[in-house]
Amino acid sequence: MAAGDVTATITSGTAKRAAHFDGTADYIEIDDSLTLLGSTTKGTIAFWAKPKDSTPAAIERILAFGDTNANERLEIILQTDGTLRAVCVAGAVGQWDVDTDAVAFASNTWVHIAATQDAVSPVLYVNGVAVASTFTDSGDTTAWFSQLAGLDNGRIGCNNFNSAGNASFTDGSVKDVLLYNRDLSAAEILSIAQSAPPTTDGLIHRYELTTDFTDSVGSADGTSVGATLVVDDGAIADAIAGQYVNNNSNYAIAAINGQVICAAIEEL
Prior knowledge:
Layout (H helix, E strand, L loop, with lengths): L5 E17 L4 E3 L4 H4 L5 E9 L8 E7 L6 E6 L5 E7 L2 E8 L10 E7 L4 E5 L2 E2 L2 E5 L15 E4 L2 E2 L5 E2 L3 E10 L5 H8 L9 E5 L15 E3 L2 E11 L5 E3 L4 E6 L2 E9 L1
Antiparallel strand pairs: 1-15, 1-18, 1-21, 2-12, 2-17, 3-8, 3-15, 4-5, 4-12, 5-6, 6-7, 7-11, 8-9, 9-10, 13-14, 15-16, 18-19, 20-21
């Protein structure tokens, strides 16, 4: 073969999908998740996110629980400077507000996010690692869902509280939202971020967002309002091992009728 010719090894698998949000009106309603979450004093929130712009013009609430008619909420937020923020407000009084010291997101790039509460203080994780963070409000760092009695709605892709309606919409994609009634260990979170199957111990709701909006663990199915399921061209599921293969410049990927053809390109 002449220089510049290529060889290709072809494999096939199933296309992996994620929920896509347009940043203007899309979200997934998960109100029923509060039935079990509402009494928890400890817990873990975890998910994958891929923002279109990691430094958006306005903050984006990726996952939020709120009181429709009052200032009570628990939220996971993408800040305009690319940092990760988590906020807990009860009865219009800030309980805690914590931000990562460094940028947590990159544009059009999947990142694994987790927040844990051990009934002492929340901890933020980025790609499986607990990251340096600073509290701007620490009135009661033990606060979690059980102290937020007014919560009546849950949203993936925006927030809704204090009679403001749905707002602060996410522009990008989200997948595999996990809600636990216990604080996962650092090792458990790292394992999930490395694409291992998540532990089921304490897992009360899971929104995989690959084929539909249902809760694959509990009975609190989500309802899409504008959000769509799209093929994620950054990963495929290996047909044999069932593990993710991340796309890069050495792979050409095409999805045909829900199947993925992946060509590994090597220049001779």
